[in-house]
Structures are given as structure tokens and as C-alpha cells.
Amino acid sequence: MYTCRECERPINQATEICPYCGADLTEPIGLEAEEPAKKRTVSSILMRWAVLLAILSAALWGFLWFVLPEQSGDPAMRAEARAVEALREVRAALSTYAEAQGGAYPVSLEALGDRARGPAQKALSEGYKVEYTPAPTGSDGRVRNYILLARPGNYGYRNFYTDESGVLRATRENRAATAQDPAF
User: Fold this and answer.
1) Integer-rounded Cα radius of gyration of the chain
2) Looking at the 3D structure of the chain, how many domains does it have?
């Protein structure tokens, strides 16, 4: 015996119509009338592609806006400005250290920690190396003078010099700047 799909009462196998509910049992299970497929027009296809292209363009622009750094201006001027800024920040850190130590400067920049490391790394990212040279220690074992240089990795960029006086000096020659070079 079989059961009706609609009312679930027992029926004869050969029955095409349920005697209880009148359901048509000749249609296969799960097949309903299908809607005819809609034909896509050229304008609807073009509209979908235009929307997709606009979304992808906006996503790419947004990605590049946040990922790529701003690169405007002359690279030499930007690098030199970063080097001068680094020298001023390190010199300020050295002055603060000397005030705390009674006028003595450190033997190396490591004593200043991040106050010297951060500006030096910024200058290095633009192609400048910050060099610190303490003067020989005095009779009391303290460093009283120093030389602070910013040396470029690229030829044609300026070399910078400063010391405990705070005067910044520069030269375009391919050598380290000295106290005899003109003030910047």
C-alpha cells in the first residue's frame, strides 16, 4: 500500500487521484511549474558590469589611499629636512642629559635610548646616518664636548654638523661638515 502525498491516507498503488482528498498523483514529486528564464538585455549586462567596475575602482582607490605614503615634493629637500629635524631632536636630548648630569654628555647615544634612536631611524629612512662623536674625557672623567653629524648616503645631498653650541652647519661637498662650514 501507498499513501497520498497530500492527506497521507493509505491508497491503492494504481490510483491516479486520491479518493479522499482528490489530489493529482500523476505529477512527479517536487516538480512544480517552472517560470520561464528571463532574457538578459544588453543594457542590464552593461549596467551590472558598470556597477562592478565602480565598486572595484573604489576599493582599489581606498586601498592605495591608506597603504601608499604621500610622496610629494623634492626627495632631497624632504631627506635634508628629516636629517635637520633628527639633529635638532638628538641635540635637545643631549642637552637634557647634560643638564641632568651636571654638564657631562654621554659616551654614546645608547644612553639616551628612544629619544635619540627614534630621530636617528627617521633620518636613516631618508638616507641619512646620524653620527655622534664625544670629545675625549676630561680630567674628571666626563665628556664636556661632542660632535653630531648627519651624513647622506646619496652624493649631492648636504652634510650637516652641530655641536654643544647648537649652531647647525652644512656643506654640499662630499665630506663631513665641520665647525668651519657656513651656518645652515
Assistant:
1) 40
2) 2
The Cβ of residue 5 has, within 10 Å, a number of other Cβ atoms equal to: 14
Asked if 110 and 162 sit in the same domain, the reply is: yes
The verdict on 18 and 80 lying in the same domain is no
Domain that residue 94 falls in: 75-171
C-alpha distances (whole Å) from 77 to each of 84, 106, 158, 174 are 10, 31, 10, 17
Helix axes 114-125, 75-100, angle to 10 degrees: 170
Q: Maximum Cα–Cα distance for the chain, whole Å? A: 121
Task: Quote the pLDDT of residue 161.
Answer: 95
pLDDT band at 1 (very low <50, low <70, confident <90, very high): low
pLDDT-based confidence at 60, cuts 50/70/90? very high
Query: pLDDT tens-digit profile of 25-58?
Result: 777 665 555 566 677 788 888 999 999 999 999 9
80 and 16, same structural domain? no
Using DSSP's 3-state secondary structure scheme, residue 130 falls into strand
